[in-house]
Design brief:
Ado_hCys_hydrolase_NAD-bd, 2 domains, Rossmann fold, single chain, 7-stranded parallel sheet, 418 residues
């Protein structure tokens, strides 16, 4: 039995799901193919993902392939209650998610999704896989394989694999080019700034925006903030990424120095305490703090709370103001959680079209290939990534060249000299 906030919201949810579907032509094509071929017939899937209109497109595609799906939220602030209602009432999925639920409710929903005894699991941050390996080890024997679609989750999975703790194969969907190159860079880049602007109505032009982390997410953020007229400072721990940022014309500084200069701080590292008490102590009055990494640990919110003499909650939607003893005000967005999903609507559907196409095709591949995979972290087959890119280009009416037979021979021969 599903646990959602309000089933009467289903009609509104369907309208928004159908709107998103218009911008997801690749997933639509895969859904049609799945409906004809039924590659997931009889399989049970448990997913821990953001409950958004775009995710609904993936769930419908898995169902078209023959799977039954139980869905829990991967972040309580990103749950769209109307989408949850539509998935239950109109599309026949089991959903365990309510917007704004507390930590206890969040994990209760994950446990409810796992009660379906899934064959496959789809994760967004590794909380579902972690729960399986800690609290629900009794279900490990039924799980054949899984997918993970976040950088943070993949990091955790690799650590589990190194320690010999991972008990079934998991495919790092996050690491496909059509996912991280587009979802992380273009999706996170746009949606994070969208969330900050919606929450604060601040003008980014002329501001100093500090981007912590220069992976694909950080690159997208830095590019778009610069495009809006901001001076962008990048903080990094990786010399290669720091060099990349420098060569692209961004200022690169340690956070201790950037903390003094920044007007807006955005963390996208996948690590904890990236903005800590020492940094908070030197920030400007009115500095804005936002996180777009998966978990709410990148900004030390506990330290911020301890330093504050007053907290003004909800001065704008998803905007809390912390007043420090010296009168400075620091503005925290979305409680330090994912600002692009809590204060905005997450990635545009056109971007998630590729990410969820990767997920759907990987699930179909796992249905026939899981038995040959070891309990480790695996890459998505290259042909799936290529197929998604090909379908996306076709949907955009973009044509590319094809190799001639002579070119194919040349590329595959070592006997031809200069």
């Amino acid at each position: 039995m599903s646990d959602i906030a309000d089933r009467s919201l289903a009609f509104e949810g369907v309208k928004r799901i159908e709107w998103a579907d218009r911008s997801m032509p690749v997933l639509r094509q895969i859904r049609e193919r799945f409906a004809a071929e039924r590659p997931l017939d009889g399989l049970r899937v448990a997913a821990c993902m953001h409950i958004t209109t775009e995710t609904a497109g993936l769930i419908r595609t898995l169902q078209a392939g023959g799977a039954s799906v139980a869905l829990a939220a991967s972040n309580p602030l990103s749950t769209q209650d109307d989408t949850a209602a539509a998935l239950v009432e109109e599309y026949g999925a089991e959903v365990f998610a309510r917007a704004g639920t507390d930590r206890e409710g969040y994990y209760a929903h994950i446990h409810q999704a796992l009660e379906t005894e899934p064959d496959f699991v789809l994760d967004d941050g590794c909380d579902l896989v972690n729960t399986l390996h800690t609290d629900r080890t009794d279900l490990l024997g039924t799980v054949k394989a899984g997918c993970e679609q976040t950088t943070t989750g993949v990091i955790r999975l690799h650590q589990m694999a190194r320690e010999g703790a991972l008990k079934f194969p998991v495919v790092a969907v996050n690491d496909t080019d059509t996912k991280h190159m587009f979802d992380n860079r273009y999706g996170t880049g746009q949606s994070t700034l969208d969330g900050i602007v919606r929450a604060t109505n601040t003008l980014l032009a002329g501001k100093t925006v500090v981007v912590a982390g220069f992976g694909y997410c950080g690159r997208g953020l830095a590019e778009r903030a610069r495009g809006l007229g901001a001076r962008v400072v990048v903080t990094e721990i990786d010399p290669v990424k720091a060099l990349d940022a420098t060569m692209q014309g961004f200022a690169v500084q340690p956070m201790a120095r950037a903390a003094v200069e920044g007007d807006v701080f955005i963390t996208v590292t996948g690590n904890r305490d990236v903005v800590n008490a020492d940094h908070l102590a030197v920030m400007k009055d009115g500095a804005i703090l936002a996180n777009s990494g998966h978990f709410d640990v990148e900004i030390d919110v506990r330290a911020l709370s301890d330093m504050a003499v007053e907290v003004h909650h909800g001065i704008r939607p998803q905007t809390d103001e912390y007043v420090l003893a010296d009168g400075r005000r620091l503005v925290l967005l979305a409680e330090g959680r994912l600002v692009n999903l809590a204060a905005a609507e997450g990635h545009p559907a056109a971007v998630m079209d590729m990410s969820f196409a990767d997920q759907a095709l990987t699930c179909a591949w796992l249905a026939t290939s899981h038995a040959s995979l070891s309990p480790a972290v695996h890459d998505v087959p290259k042909e799936i990534d290529t197929e998604v890119a090909r379908l996306k280009l076709a949907s955009m009416s973009v044509s590319i060249d094809l190799l001639t037979p002579d070119q194919e021979d040349y590329l595959h021969s070592w006997r031809i000299g200069s």
